[in-house]
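User: Quick sanity check before I run a bigger batch. Here is a single chain. Can you write out its predicted 3D structure?
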Amino acid sequence: MRTNWLGGVTYRLFWILLPCLVLGLVFGQVAWALVVGLSAYLAWNLRQMLRFHHWLIHRPNEAPPETKGVWGDIFDSIYHMQRRDKRMRERLQMVIDRIQASTAALSDAVVMIDRNGQLEWWNHAAERMLGLRSPDDSGQYVTNLIRDPRFVEFFEQNHYQDALDIPSPIDVSAWLQYTITHYGDGDRLMVVRDVTRLHNLEQMRKDFVANVSHELRTPLTVVVGYLETLQDSDEPLNPRWKRALHQMQQQAARMQSLLNDLLMLARLETADQVIEEKPVDIGLMLQGIRKDAQALSAERGHLITLEVASNTRLKGSEVELRSAFSNLVFNAVKYTPDQGEIHIRWWQDDMGAHLSVSDNGAGIAPQHIHRLTERFYRVDSSRSTHTGGTGLGLAIVKHVLLRHQGKLDIISTPGHGSTFTCHFPTTRLD
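Assistant: Done. Predicted structure follows.
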């Protein structure tokens, strides 16, 4: 390209200066003839530069002016680049139009948010579900328009592993699910889905379980009372009835335990926040739980050890925390073979406070771990029936931790035992 440019300039100068040189020799003014020729050439280049400047300033979207020589090559190159750029912009605009048309047809709200938390673009569903107004809300901070404290906390945490379900900002009877994904250079894509029907169904299920559990409690108490009366009676019983009454009492006690767990779970699901928070001495609580676990173990001979590496108190509900921790410890007793080892540990570090319950039992296969906190989920139904578990213990643990901003980690290896660890943030420490 550089050779062509130099060749073109040299060729044009040669044919401009050659006539000037001939005229200079004829009239005896060679120097002035060359000056006039070079001046004419410079004037022509200056004119082409002015034309180029005028085109850039006033008509950049039109085709560049036509000329010859080097400037003609420059203008032609710019013209071809301009056409390629135009075709590329048309293709990109077509893609953008298709994306916007497809997202506008979605029933879910789609909102694009820049790295500073300001609204860039949204579809029609976002206007209907979130009350956004175009173009007035463009550039507004999303937390200024969706002011629910739960959404503000969710948005500002800057990592979005789980979705957030909260009432709609424009209709308290509707429930929306927010999911946020990072893309580009710190930008975020927020998708909002209407989950009112699912929320109502879930609430109906919770109410049904709570109501049925409450209604069954009274008749079951009556049955248990009569069974105890019959067994404690001074009148001799037919030997065939003794075994039947004993089994009936065992099953009634199991039903009472199940109802108590269902009522506890329903109460945990009903309220979002912990009631009557106060500093709880976890070390003292764990000592009591350890004694209860030793009584539960009885002749099975488990070695249950307790390590309290921190005397930090935890802010929360003592009743709920005791229920969660005892469920973990009692599960370890139930599912650890006789003479097995169970270790309870409470400690604190820069991340917060932690409680772990480890055992050397049979362990749990990896495909079951993510479902252990589901209600009534059984890894081995025959083993659970034998131990008398309700299948609700870990579900209760999960909900107690959620109400205390904690989380549960489960590490288990088949044949080598399991470790259940509760993590609490530093904001919960007293």
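The radius of gyration is 40 Å.

User: Great, the batch can go ahead then.
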